[in-house]
Every structure is written in structure tokens, then in C-alpha cells.
Amino acid sequence: MDLRIQKTYEALFALEDIREIFRESLPTGPDADGEKEIKRIAEELKKTISDIESGTGQPKVRAIGNSLPIRDREEAYINIQPIQAAGRLTADARKAIISYGDGYSACDQCRKPFRLDKIEKPCIAGFHRELAEFLGMDEARVVPGARRGFQAVTSTLIEKGDIAIATSLSHYTEFLAVENSHGQIREIPADKNNIITADSAAEKIEEVIRKEGKTPKLLMIDHFDYTYANEHDVYGIAKVAKQYDIPLLYNGAYSVGVMPVDGRKIGADFVVGSGHKSMASAAPSGVLAATSEWAEEVFRTTQITGDVTNRRFGIKEVEMLGCTLMGAPLFTMMASFPHVVERTKHWDDEITKISFLLDRMLAIKGTTVLSEYPRKHALTKVDTTDSFDTVSKTHKKRGFYFSSEMSKRGIAGVFPGATKQWKLSTYGLSWEKVRYLADSFDEIAEKYNLEVAK
Amino acid sequence: MDLRIQKTYEALFALEDIREIFRESLPTGPDADGEKEIKRIAEELKKTISDIESGTGQPKVRAIGNSLPIRDREEAYINIQPIQAAGRLTADARKAIISYGDGYSACDQCRKPFRLDKIEKPCIAGFHRELAEFLGMDEARVVPGARRGFQAVTSTLIEKGDIAIATSLSHYTEFLAVENSHGQIREIPADKNNIITADSAAEKIEEVIRKEGKTPKLLMIDHFDYTYANEHDVYGIAKVAKQYDIPLLYNGAYSVGVMPVDGRKIGADFVVGSGHKSMASAAPSGVLAATSEWAEEVFRTTQITGDVTNRRFGIKEVEMLGCTLMGAPLFTMMASFPHVVERTKHWDDEITKISFLLDRMLAIKGTTVLSEYPRKHALTKVDTTDSFDTVSKTHKKRGFYFSSEMSKRGIAGVFPGATKQWKLSTYGLSWEKVRYLADSFDEIAEKYNLEVAK
């Protein structure tokens, strides 16, 4: 590991050791031994900070505890891993996680009616209101990942044997949510350009009604799919869903938090987003938002009663299982939120960056883009079968040469061994990094005598 | 906030600002502006560290981002909040959260068959094996909170109208999990000492079979309940469940991670634990473990197929919705785990500490213990209606005087206004802190002329 990054971690860890002394001390402060230990750590820490500045010294900490390696992917590399880009924490989120990591940290000031989204200090209630507004929806709840949002909706709407509509490009977690509710799923086929159209949605609904004699209970549409990150016609499909009176779940795992999303304008009944995928938040985190009409159902409060005690459980929500997302994932969502709101306004810049990179990659003869082109998303699937993969036939590392060459240049996130069809994302990278990436692909191409158009 | 604690946070945050510069830099390192900024932060940081040592300086950082206050409950106070005690992060867990906070940090080395509990680097797979072994069960999965463990089990076992048995002291999340599966719940009544006995369990099962004509599909028993933290006869009840061939879910939210729990010895089919409640982990986190027999059902893999694509989803598990608990909550569980294993061996010491404190509190005339006594758990419900509450009748702050007096002495976690029946926990506190607590109760009693036996 780069020594300065190593030393930054060592300094952070030393401060946690000091913090631990405060934690172990009486409210009156550390005792003599504690003070001595603070002094010792502090003196060493000052040296460590000098080492950060100068890049000197020897690594001291090899692992967290006995065996957990220190992770430096975001510090030492340009990370183009397709699903990691927009989940990377902001500095504010990292500060929040330091302060609020303890288990029930959200609950210090929990007062009646005892529900997470009602807590006013810190302003978790206000965050919920802002979140709903940000998504153009009436109500929002934080959930442990987008999949738990799907599950809440399928569990509410789908009974045994019911049909839910998804698409041939839908994420597997939508399938699992439907399976979990004992429902069946039918896929709207993508067209030859791998786009889901409103016509295709209407045809599929008609086919299901005609052949199976049931109207689907739910339609789930990924605004951008996980394979190509192609944009699908969510506006048109929402209209179709409305015509058939089928509630629409907008899956914004790849849109909520990176681009503007207005659920009301789209015509969505539910909007689901992913915190760790697209909202610069710790996992597992996400959001489920609904119109007021559907909020009544998906956020219905508990009705069950204890037969002996006659206990009821107030305003706890059945699908949320009470409180949902306390602690680190929640506070990272909250701390990143102002930055997330701001960044969605600059989505065009992200498109410009991926387009620039792809133009440069396409100049490497044989490279093609499998995603729709021009791009509407920073995540893109490329095909380098006729460029970078040709090298792997004779290279002693085979396909691994490519990720290895990338890694040597400080680029992480290409699946090791992948040289044919693979995905990358430039989301959130600076122009400097995007140019560095483009130059790196060129360098590797030239090193292995691939033809590069100038 | 105590200035030295304030300065510790400021130093941690400054290091995150340095880390952000590395994150924004090319793999070749920071540019001239970046270097200048590192130097500036580092110089200031050295002063901040001197301030930590000496307690000098002025507070600089008032909030994280615009509005999130810095949390100092664990650093500045003795925290006796009943549910926070055993979820407090270890120093290793805090280091893990710093390193692994980013959304998909668990997934850097995810390889076929692409499932969280199969990842070998970092050794998430090994952790799952150790976790199962630690609980005396065959298989274990991490889940986003104990409630998600209950949900997986009820969703697997309970169909519409089915009956699950819980107790009159069961946690509300068990009720919500059953409600979520469209089941009904019946409570085993506690006896006059607020204990759930095997006889009472057998009677309830008999009653349900006799009156409702159905054998219950599940029996859920909290080893220690959330109200009194009384110990219930899990061994006897497991035997009863076996006689009626009803699967037993052992709810170890208050035991797994603080005391030895051997699911096999107990005779449990499922063991559920809470990471943020009792395993020194970030929320939401927990564990669901099962015998190999039941693991096949609750961890069944997906069977659903796409009708257009014929897609299947490999070994993803339906109830887990694929991967479950990535990032911060998982890595805090892993980093705390060796400490958690070790601390369960010293459960007796924790009982000795709460017993010492209660003896001292009982010397304040009028104070009683509502939990079973002698104690078998560090969490305890006390009744101070005839001691501390008598003061509130004439105090201008009314009941709030008590939490205010506690807070003045650096003690947090007493519900503001509560002076009659309230809960506390001494879990994980040093003897020094326990004595300080006892002395503080005495001081307050004496200040308000309550009678204290010497």
C-alpha cells in the first residue's frame, strides 16, 4: 500500500485508540494511566502525520484486529467498478460514520411515538420529508437496500399465484421479491436495441390477461438496467400501467441519487432507490417512496394483537418491521444527502465524461459499445473481444493481463480475466481521472500493438 | 462537549479531509494544490493533537455537514441505556467502519458463485462458518437486524391463517414478522414472577390445538425478554416444542454476543441474534442460524425463472433476497467478533457488576427491582416510585430532575422524565464505572434527603 495512505489509516486508527481511552474513562476524565497512554499515542501520532506529509516511515498496522486487511481501493486507485462508483462515501458521510457507528446511535433521543422516521434529534424526521420531496413522492422510508423496498411492495400487493410484470433486463432482486411473495413473474421483452418500450409493455400486459386470465398486480420497471444501463421508457410505461390500473414500481437503483428523478412526473406509484449503489451511502441502505394513496397500504401500521396481553404495537409499520435503518447506513445517507441533491444537477457532465472516454476507447480498433449509444448513463458495457481480448490469446497471463495492466496504472474495478464484454463506470470521476483512464487504455493498446486511430 | 473529545473528532475529521485528497488524486499522487492542502491540514492537525493532550484550544467543528451534531454519548458519559450497552462498537469495529464504509466495499473480490457468504477476501465465508460454530448451529447468515431473521423464518413457515406461538413477553418484531406473513400469534403467558415456563408453553400449545384445531407452525422464545431481561426456560420449552414437532426459534437478541449460547444444546431449530443490540456492531445487523435440516428450507435457493429470458438466479437465497449485509454492519460484526467471543466467557462478571449496583440501589429506601432477583442479566428494570419519584412531586423540574442530576454526573441513558419504573444496563462497564454509578445514585438520594441504609 502507498505509504502515505497507510499512514493516514494509521493516524485514524491511533485516534480511535485515543477515543477508546475516553470511552473507558470515568466522566471525570482519564486516570493517570489513561493520560500517559494518550500522551504516548499523541506523540507517535504527530510523527505519523509528518510521515503522511513526507511519505516516510515504515508501515506499522498490517490489519484491523487479527485479519481484516485495510482497504485502499478508493484512495490508491481510480475505481471504475460499475456498481461501486456512486456508492462511494462522501467525506461528510465518512465523518458521520465515525460519529454514529455505534449500534443504536439513532435512538439517543427517540421519544413517543417511538418510530425511526419520527425522531427529531438528529433530524431523521426532516430527512424523511426531504427525501420524499426530492423524489417527487408523498411519503418515504429508508430501508436496508433497494431489495427490501421491492420486498415491502411485493409483500403488500402480491398474493400466492399473482402475476407481477418485470422486464427481460430487470435486476434479479425483483424476481426474488416476487418469489418471496409466492407470486409469478412475467418479463416484458427488450427490443433489438435492448430497450424496453411502452408498446412492448402494453403487449405483454395484454398477453398475460389473454393467456392467463389475470391482470398483473404490479409492474416493475428499471429506469436504467443493470446490464447495459440503457434508459427505458419509464414515462410511456407508466402511462400504460395507468391504463390497465396496475401500480407501477419505478426501480431507480441506478438513477435515484445520480440524476434528477421526479416520481410524480413519471407517474410512479412507488419509487425505490439504493443508498449503497447511488446515494453515496454505506450498505445496506435504500429508500422506498410512495404516493399517499399507496403509502397507506405499503406503510400500513400493525393490527396484530396479543391474545393474552391484548398488546398492540402502535404506529409500527408491518412491512418495515418497525424501525428500519438505524445507525451507519442511515447517517451516511443523511450526511451525503446535500451532496447527492447537488450532484444530480450535474448529470449532464457525467454523460459528457463517459462519452469522452468511450470516444477514446472506440478509437482502439475492434472495440465496440454494447450499451445504447450515445450514452445516457455513466455505466457502460463495452466489447473488447476484437481489441484487448486478442492479446489474451498469446499472453502468458491470458485474460488476466488486462486487469493486471490496469492495476499497474492504478486502475481498479475491471473484473479479473474479463477482456471480452465488461462494464465500467466513470461516475463521479474528475476530468483529470477520465483523461488518465483514456490515456491508460491507449497505452495498453499501444504496448500490445493494437491499432489506435489518432 | 468536552474539549478533548471535541478535538479528537476534529482530528479524525481532518484526517478524513486528507483521505479525500488522496481519493480525488490520480494514482500518481496529489498534485501541487493537493500537496499544499495536505500540508495545511497536517500542520493544523498537529496543533489539534496537542489540544487533545492538553485540553486547550477552541471548538472548530460544530456539525458534520450542515446539521448533523457530533455524538459524544459513549466518550463523555457512562451510558446505561438498556439497549445500547452491548451494541457499542469496539475500537476494532470503529477501525473497520473507517476502512470499509463505502457502499459495496465487501464486493471487491466477489467471484463465482457471487454470494456474500462465499466471499473469501476478506474472509466473509470464514466468518460465516465461525458464526455458525459459535452458536452451535450448522449454518448461519448475517441479516439486517434480528427482525429480518424472524421475517425469513415466518415467511418460510407461516402461511395465511397459520398460528405461531410467542409469549406475553415477546418482542414486538416477532409479532410484526408473523403479521407480515399473514399469520396469527398466540402468547404463552408468563407466570406471576414474569417467567415463561415449559409447563405454560405445553398448556398453550394444547389449548391452541384443542380450541383452534391447528398445530402451531412455529414457537418463538426470547431467552431473555426485553422488559425484565428475565431468563426463560428455553431448554424446557425446546423439549416441549420437540414433543409437538413444532420448530423452535430461539431469540437471542439479548444473549447472543454477551453470554455463551449453544443452539444445539438448547435444542433450537433457529437461532437469531442482534448485531447492534448484543454483538458490538453497527446497525442494522444480526444473525440467523439454523440446523442443517431447517437451513435447507429457510436458506432455500431461488427457483423462479424469467418467461422470456429463461433466466435463473443460481444460488441466491430467496429469504435473504440474494446478498444480505454488506459493508459497515458486516465488517463491524467481523472486527468485533473475536472480542465478542471472548467477552461471552466473562458473563459471570457482568452479573456480579449489576448485582453490586442493585444492592447499592436497594439500600436507597423504597427502591425495588422488578426483574427477577437475583439477576441473571445485566439489563434490569427497577422501580423507584417510592424513592426517586417522591422527589419529583415537589421538584420544579418534576420527573426530569432525575435524568438531569444523572446527566450532571456524566451519566446518560435514563429516559428523561422517568422516575418510576425504568430500565438500565451495566453491560460492559468497568468496575470503576459501576462504583461511580452506585455513588452517583447515593449522592442524588442524599441530596434530596432520601433514606439510604449504610
Automatic annotation (TrEMBL), chains A, B:
GO terms for biological process: translation. GO terms for molecular function: Sep-tRNA:Cys-tRNA synthase activity. InterPro entries: PyrdxlP-dep_Trfase, PyrdxlP-dep_Trfase_major, PyrdxlP-dep_Trfase_small, Sep_Cys-tRNA_synth_arc, SepSecS/SepCysS. Pyridoxal 5'-phosphate binds at A146, R147, N251, S274, G275, H276. Keywords: Protein biosynthesis, Pyridoxal phosphate, Transferase. It is an enzyme of class 2 (transferase). Its EC number is 2.5.1.73. Its cofactor is pyridoxal 5'-phosphate. It catalyses: O-phospho-L-seryl-tRNA(Cys) + hydrogen sulfide + H(+) = L-cysteinyl-tRNA(Cys) + phosphate. The modification N6-(pyridoxal phosphate)lysine is found at K277. The keyword Zinc-finger does not apply. Pfam families: SepSecS. It comes from the Archaea. Belongs to the SepCysS family. Homodimer. Interacts with SepRS. Converts O-phospho-L-seryl-tRNA(Cys) (Sep-tRNA(Cys)) to L-cysteinyl-tRNA(Cys) (Cys-tRNA(Cys)). This is O-phospho-L-seryl-tRNA:Cys-tRNA synthase.
